[in-house]
Amino acid sequence: MSTLQQVLVLYLKSSALDSAVIGWARYDGTGEQPGEPGDSSEPPYETGLAALQDGWRLIQASPIEAHVPGSEFTTSYLKFEFFFEKLVEL
Questions:
Q1: What Rg do the C-alpha atoms of the chain give, in angstroms?
Q2: How far is CA 51 from the centre of its chain?
Q3: How far is CA 30 from its chain centroid?
Q4: DSSP for the chain?
Q5: What own/partner pairs with CB < 8 Å and gap ≥ 24 does 53-61 have?
Q6: N or C: which end of the chain has fewer CB within 10 A?
Q7: Residue 51: which domain range?
Q8: CA 59 to chain centroid
Q9: Residue 14 within a domain
Q10: Is 69 part of a structural domain of the chain?
Q11: Domain count, the chain
């Protein structure tokens, strides 16, 4: 029996885990859920908290950085990035 990892990356609307998911990617080391990252029009969870409640373990969150004055309307990367993992026994 081996243990394999599944990784879920959620981009949230704010730094709070109970805020809405606005982007996501899923990577499955088990091969059980084939597909490409972001290949669904619906997020796998409504919030980061919902992922925790479903057994995903939070392993990293983006640091909160202050906005530079005048950058409020700049389009850039999604900054509230959270990495989750699940270990699956096969």
A1: 15
A2: 9
A3: 18
A4: --EEEEEEEEEESSSSTTSBEEEEEEEETTSSS---TT--SS-S-SBHHHHHHTTPEEEEEPPP-PPPTT-TT-------EEEEEEEEE-
A5: 55/86, 56/8, 56/84, 56/85, 56/86, 57/84, 57/85, 57/86, 58/17, 58/82, 58/83, 58/84, 59/83, 59/84, 59/85, 61/15
A6: N
A7: 3-64+76-89
A8: 10
A9: yes
A10: no
A11: 1
pLDDT in tens, the chain (90 residues): 788 999 999 999 998 999 999 999 988 888 876 666 556 789 999 999 999 999 999 998 877 777 778 776 776 667 889 999 999 888
Any domain includes 38 = yes
Q: How far is CA 83 from the centre of its chain?
A: 5
Token duo for residue 12? 């949230």
Residue 9 lies in a domain: yes
